[in-house]
Structure formats: structure tokens, C-alpha cells
From TrEMBL:
It comes from Bacterioplanes sanyensis. This is enoyl-CoA hydratase. PROSITE patterns: ENOYL_COA_HYDRATASE. The keyword Iron does not apply. The lineage of its organism: Bacteria, Pseudomonadati, Pseudomonadota, Gammaproteobacteria, Oceanospirillales. It catalyses: a (3S)-3-hydroxyacyl-CoA + NAD(+) = a 3-oxoacyl-CoA + NADH + H(+).
Length: 720
């Protein structure tokens, strides 16, 4: 077995220290690793023969951060104890880094691959950073996306190195870039060919035997932040901070704790000597780590996304299927988008529509996207040409005969969908899968038109397909386990994130999403001011207010779906107060949505929008207005209760998928870590039930939580 750290000393006394954790696929900072690192660095520092150290990795990546799973496992629930234990670990990291910085021997980070989070921080604690020119390597500080701050000195070393203003986006937005951009920003000093990496690092050490960190060079200036061009005045820092604070409030409505704390840590820390600043950073880090928000974000984006993308839902006894050639029926908005996404991943695509002209129009969509990428220098013309030739357009069903999978994305009309299903099945091979991209029609009903309903599945993509990461896989009554496994393989091949959902009206995402916009309309009907509704939606963390979102989706479409549902369900249909508003807008006010240029808002050709003045007449604003907090609560609770019903009815069962589906599918408030996380971690089940019960009193049964939640709360259970 390889050792965690090994080193060799050359004839110049330069030690090349290789970090290669034999127990993990990547190098990360755990307690055992930091103890070993401390030991080896102490050895090297004390070894008189050693004149300098190159720190590099034996993995593909350099170092990718701290082992968060381990840190969270130390939590006992006893706050003081937890703070002490975690702080001790963080301080052990600081100690190693300070030892490297002040040992009187130069250290170079030879970044053979990605350096993220703690990995980038250890690189900053070296006197110089050289990266290998690896196209896929990423550099930056993603901690903020997990509700944390870079806790291994990043918030203090980076601004002292590149300046406060330049450091902010890296720390507060979790920017991650390739080597060239990181070099331009000053995070990395040099980028060289991979084969030259170690030689370049050693050369630098030979040339700089007395290297010192900027903050250790001149003791008299260590109380102020050094910028590349000199020192910065406190007044200037305050100015930068105030601007950043204002921007943050505008962008996040105060929903995210981490960027707020990063700003504060930076501001306070920059006025202190480094050692004290590191202590301060440690306190803020531990505070964030123990917050509910960080717990929620880590569970969803770190553990949850890993779980979902590792296809935990996939039946294990079925061999993996590699897709080479897919057919798409309907070259409209969705069909064209799917053709782009599949061809981008190297699949051959047959794009079929009612005429060659229509099909070609669908292919033009890919051409336009590729042209933009060429203009932005993201791809070469050659690359674009190769992708385009993978899309064959046609109106002839015979061209589908070699496809492994056919996805229909024709009009949302049962009869048309049934017709194209039969036409395709007449020519495709026996093990070709068939999928529908329907957004609302139950899959089992559509599968009735198929000769092989076991191979019929729902693949619900989101628009625009090239940007949206989620695909909702819908399992019909007769869909086989094999089809589920293969659908998951296909979604993974596209590089998208799947959630698996059982067939039901509106599936999971459309069903819950609808409650957000309808709740907005119910509030409107009650006389709540539209501006308050829209602002409360954004303050709740939703990307767009519910009324603007209804316009985007199209009121006309919502009306059509609602009528279809009423017709299908008859007496079983449960009316929502928002239905009346949709009906009024479409059938009485002739305001169909954004596409028509008229909905809750009126739209100008220049792309501006303002609330439709007629709204005040149709829904007069009441004298008494609820608080923004109340409106916010209603908008979030309406969605959360519906999601809980989906779970309780077995429409969707894996909690990570419920959370990720809510954020990626319709933009549920991301700072909560997703919709179940909102209920369990942010609100707490007991509080959630109490608040929802109070809303039932005011708003009716749509806020009634399922029995499952009460049981779980009573037994102290968890969704996860
Ligand atoms: P669209 O109207 O842009 O495109 C439909 C295409 O199907 C048109 O190009 C049409 O010529 C073609 N078509 C119609 N009948 C055909 C036939 N018999 N044979 C071959 N092609 C035929 O519609 P869009 O928006 O692309 O929607 C397609 C499907 O995707 C629908 O089922 C819709 O519910 C679903 N969907 C739509 C989303 C959206 O945001 N628009 C999101 C997710 C799913």
C-alpha cells in the first residue's frame, strides 16, 4: 500500500513531497491526513539537508478540500463541545500552514490538477503556485455554495495577496475557473506544460531561497492589507465592503448567511495581524458549519447530488446500456433542445418533424447555440461542424430504424402522441426504448398507445434543455425495471441529473410548481397587493415572483391544463382559488401571458415589463395588508405541503431527489437545501406542522399536512 505522504530529496536539497491518499479517490483534508501532513512538514523543516519543498499530488486532482462528512460526524449536539472539537481541527490546519510559511525554507505548490477549497488554501500558504496546463482543472473556493466560508485561511490570505475587491467574487460567489483565468487573477503565479511542472517548481525554489509571504515580509505593515500595488487604506476597504453589502442584499434578499459572514470576516480580519485574523476566521467558520443552513446545503449539494448522480436509484442487476443513436419526434422547442444536448455528448440524432423544413428548423437551433459558443471562443469551428453532422433531419419514420431510443416531443395532445408512437414502433428494433417528453399527461395513459408498454417511459426535460440540469424520469404502471435502468443510463450519458418519479398527474415537479403560482393568484384574489406578492416570492428565495412566472409559463397553457384535468377527474377535481384568476385572465381579460405580450404584466418590445393597470380594477387592493413574512410563508408552505403529499403518496420517494428536483426543476428557494430540507432542517417539523395548521384555518385544506409528517415528527424521525 502506498503511503499518504512520500518525499524524495534531490542533490540540491529540494524535497518533492507527494500527497496521495491510499484510502480515498481524491486528496482531502481529514484529521488523519492533517496529522500526517504536520508530521512530514515538521520532518522536512527540521531536516538541515532540505533547502526547499515542492508540494504536489499523486492523484489526478491536487487537493479538493476538507472531508466534510468526517467533520460533520464529530457533531454531538452539544454546542460548546462541538465548537471546541471543530476549532481544534481547524487550528491544526492553520498551524501546519504557518509552519510552512515561516520555516525559513521556500515552499512551492505544484498544482498538477484541480485545487479547490482547502486545496487552494494550502496552495496559498505556499510561497509560490505553479499549475500544470490541464484543460479540465479548476481552481477556486466553492465553500460558499455549501453555506460555508473558506476556513483554512482563504478569507485572509487571498485578499492580502490580490486585494480585497478582487478577492470578493472568488470567496463570495464561489467562482471556479481554469488555470489561465486563475493566473490572470493572481491566484496562481505560473502555468506550465504538465511535463515541466516539477522542473519549473524546483527552478523557482533554487532562484528564491529566501522567499517570504507578503504578510510576513514587513512586520510594520502587517496590520493593513497589502495589495499588489501597495497598501490599502481602511476607508477604501469600508467603501468596497459597503458596495458589496448592497449588492449582496439585492441579489440574495438576505437569505444566504455564508456570503454575509465572508464579507464580515474579510472586513474585520483585514484590519488584524494574520495570526489573529485566522482565529477570527476559524470562529466564523465553525459558526457557519453548525448552522442549519450549512447542514441543509451540504446535505443537498454535497451528499445529495453525489448520491443522485451515482444513480442510487438504478436497479443494480441490469447491465449498463450505452446509447449511440437516438430519434426525436417533433423538432419544436423541446425536440430541438434535446437534439442539441444529445449531439453535444457525441450521440447521433435523427430529428423528425412533419416536414423536412420543420425538422431543419429544429436543427438550426443547435447551429445558433454553436455559433454563440464559437463567438465566445468556447469551441472551435471544427468541433461545431462535427456536432452538427451528428444531427440528421428527416420527415421519414424509416430513418428511425437504427435508433436505441426514440423520444417524442410533439404537441401536448394525446391523439397526436398516440399516432406518432404507433408510427415509430412500426419501424424501430425490438429493444429500442420509447420515451415521452410530455409535461403533464400521465405516462400510463400514453403507454396504452404502445405495443410494448414495458419499454415506454417518461423523460421530462426542462426548458431550455441546454441549461437545465434536471430530467424527471416517469415510471408508468407497466414500465419495466430494465427501462428505468436504461433511462438512468441515458440521462447520465447526457451529463444531466435524474430524479425518478412514479406516474401521477403533473408528476412531481409540475404538480408542486403549480401550487406556487396558484398561491400567488389566491393572494391576489384576497386583495393582497401584487407588488407585495411578487416581492415576497423573491424574498422567499424563488427566482421570480409567482405572477411574473405565470406569465412566463403562459396563463393560456395553465388554463388548458386545468380544463383538461377537470374534465379527466370530474367530481374528484379539487378546485384551487387561483383557478378562478386564471379563468378570468384568459377568458375575460384576454391576457394570455408573456408570449402574447399581455398577462399580469404588460410587455414592451424593448423587453421591459410593468404590472397591468387593469389588475387593480379586477382585484382591488385591500386596506389591510398582510406582512411580507406571512405572504412569504404562504408561498413556501403551499409548495412544501404539496411536496409532502407527493412523498406520502409515493410519487417520489428518495429525499435527496425531492430536494434536488425542487431546486433544479422549478427553482425552489435554494438556500433551504430543497423542499424537504426546508421542512425538516430550516423550519423544523414541529414548527412546520404548527404553522401549516394555522394556515389551514385561514386558507383551507390545501395547507393540511399529510399524516406521514405528523407521525415522523412524533417519533422524532427524519426524511433522510
Ligand atoms: P412545440 O410546439 O415547440 O413543438 C412541437 C413540434 O412537434 C412542432 O415542431 C411540430 O411540428 C411537431 N409535430 C407535431 N405533430 C407532429 C407529428 N405528427 N409528427 C412529427 N412532429 C410533429 O412544443 P414544445 O414546447 O417543444 O413541446 C413538445 C412537448 O414537450 C409537449 O409534450 C410539451 O408538453 C413537452 N414539454 C414542454 C416544455 C416546455 O417548456 N415547452 C417543457 C417540458 C415538456
Amino acid at each position: 500500500m502506498t503511503e499518504l505522504f512520500t518525499y524524495a530529496i534531490d542533490s540540491d536539497g529540494i524535497a518533492t513531497l507527494v500527497w496521495d491518499d491510499p484510502n480515498a479517490p481524491v486528496n482531502a483534508m481529514s484529521q488523519a491526513v492533517m496529522t500526517a501532513l504536520n508530521r512530514v512538514i515538521t520532518d522536512l523543516v527540521n531536516n538541515a539537508q532540505v533547502t526547499g519543498v515542492v508540494l504536489t499530488s499523486g492523484k489526478k486532482e491536487f487537493v479538493v478540500g476538507a472531508d466534510l462528512k468526517e467533520i460533520l460526524s464529530w457533531e454531538s449536539g452539544e454546542r460548546e463541545r462541538d465548537i471546541a472539537v471543530i476549532s481544534e481541527f481547524i487550528q491544526s490546519i492553520h498551524a501546519v500552514m504557518r509552519l510552512m510559511e515561516t520555516a525559513g525554507k521556500p515552499f512551492v505548490a505544484a498544482l498538477n490538477g484541480s485545487a479547490l477549497g482547502g486545496g487552494m488554501e494550502i496552495a496559498l500558504a505556499c510561497h509560490y503556485r505553479i499549475a500544470a496546463n490541464q484543460p479540465k482543472a479548476k481552481f477556486g473556493f466553492p465553500e460558499v455554495t455549501l453555506g460555508l466560508l473558506p476556513g483554512a485561511g482563504g478569507t485572509q490570505r487571498l485578499p492580502r495577496m490580490i486585494g480585497v475587491e478582487a478577492a470578493l467574487p472568488w470567496l463570495m460567489q464561489g467562482l471556479q475557473t481554469g488555470a489561465a483565468q486563475a493566473q490572470a487573477a493572481g491566484l496562481i503565479n505560473e502555468v506550465v506544460d504538465a511535463t515541466q511542472l516539477l522542473a519549473a517548481a524546483k527552478q523557482w525554489l533554487r532562484d528564491n531561497p529566501n522567499a517570504q509571504q507578503p504578510w510576513d515580509q514587513n512586520k510594520s505593515t502587517r496590520h493593513t492589507v497589502r495589495l499588489p500595488g501597495g497598501e490599502v487604506q481602511s476607508a477604501k476597504i469600508s467603501q468596497v465592503m459597503m458596495a458589496a453589502q448592497a449588492m449582496l442584499r439585492k441579489q440574495t434578499h438576505g437569505n444566504y448567511q455564508a456570503p454575509q459572514q465572508i464579507l464580515q470576516t474579510l472586513y474585520e480580519g483585514c484590519q488584524l495581524p494574520l495570526e489573529q485574523a485566522l482565529q477570527l476566521e476559524c470562529r466564523h467558520f465553525v459558526q457557519l458549519l453548525l448552522s442549519n443552513q450549512a447542514k441543509a446545503l451540504i446535505r443537498t449539494f454535497f451528499l445529495g447530488l453525489q448520491d443522485v448522480n451515482k444513480l442510487k436509484a438504478r436497479p443494480t442487476d441490469i447491465a449498463r446500456r450505452q446509447f449511440a443513436n437516438i430519434g426525436i419526434l417533433g423538432a419544436g422547442m423541446m425536440g430541438a433542445g434535446i437534439a442539441y444536448a444529445a449531439s453535444a455528448k457525441g450521440l447521433d440524432v435523427v430529428l423528425l418533424d412533419t416536414s423536412q423544413v420543420q425538422a431543419d428548423r429544429g436543427k438550426d437551433y443547435t447551429r445558433r447555440l454553436l455559433d454563440k459558443k464559437i463567438a465566445a471562443k468556447k469551441i472551435t469551428e471544427q468541433h461545431a461542424k462535427a456536432q452538427l453532422t451528428r444531427i440528421k433531419t428527416t420527415s421519414d419514420y424509416q430513418d428511425l430504424s437504427d435508433c436505441d431510443l426514440v423520444i417524442e416531443a410533439v404537441f401536448e395532445d394525446r391523439a397526436i402522441k398516440a399516432k406518432v408512437t404507433a408510427q415509430a414502433e412500426a419501424v424501430i428494433g425490438a429493444d429500442t426504448m420509447f420515451a415521452s417528453n410530455t409535461s403533464t399527461l400521465p405516462i400510463s395513459g400514453l403507454a396504452a398507445a404502445s405495443q410494448r408498454p414495458d419499454q415506454f417511459i417518461g423523460l421530462h426535460f426542462f426548458s431550455p434543455v441546454d441549461k437545465m440540469p434536471l430530467v424527471e424520469i416517469i415510471v408508468g404502471e407497466q414500465t419495466s425495471q430494465q427501462s428505468i435502468a436504461w433511462a438512468l443510463d441515458f440521462v447520465q450519458q447526457l451529463g444531466k441529473t435524474p430524479i425518478v418519479v412514479n406516474d401521477s398527474r403533473g408528476f412531481y415537479t409540475s404538480r408542486v410548481f403549480k401550487t406556487y403560482v396558484l398561491e400567488g393568484m389566491a393572494l391576489l384574489k384576497e386583495g393582497v397587493s401584487p407588488a407585495l406578492i411578487e416581492n415576497a416570492g423573491k424574498m422567499a428565495g424563488m427566482p421570480v415572483g409567482p405572477l411574473a412566472l405565470s406569465d412566463e409559463v403562459s396563463l393560456e397553457l395553465m388554463d388548458r391544463i386545468s380544463r383538461q384535468t377537470q374534465q379527466d377527474l370530474g367530481d374528484a377535481y379539487v378546485a384551487h382559488p387561483g383557478d378562478e384568476v386564471v379563468d378570468f385572465m384568459v377568458h375575460h381579460a384576454d391576457r394570455l401571458g408573456k408570449k402574447a405580450g399581455r398577462g399580469f404584466y404588460q410587455y414592451t418590445d424593448q423587453g421591459d415589463k410593468s404590472l397591468w393597470p387593469g389588475l387593480a380594477e379586477a382585484y382591488p387592493v385591500a386596506v389591510q395588508q398582510p406582512t411580507p413574512a406571512h405572504v412569504k410563508q404562504r408561498l413556501l408552505y403551499a409548495q412544501a405541503v404539496e411536496a409532502l403529499h407527493c412523498v406520502s403518496e409515493g410519487v417520489i420517494s428518495r429525499p435527496h431527489e425531492v430536494d434536488i428536483g425542487s431546486i433544479f426543476g422549478w427553482g425552489f428557494a435554494a438556500h433551504t437545501g430543497g423542499i424537504l430540507s426546508f421542512v425538516e432542517t430550516i423550519e423544523g417539523m414541529d414548527t412546520f406542522i404548527r404553522n401549516a395548521d394555522a394556515l389551514v384555518e385561514q386558507g383551507g385544506d390545501r395547507f393540511r399536512v399529510p399524516h406521514m409528517l405528523r407521525e415522523l415528527a412524533e417519533t422524532g424521525g427524519s426524511f433522510y
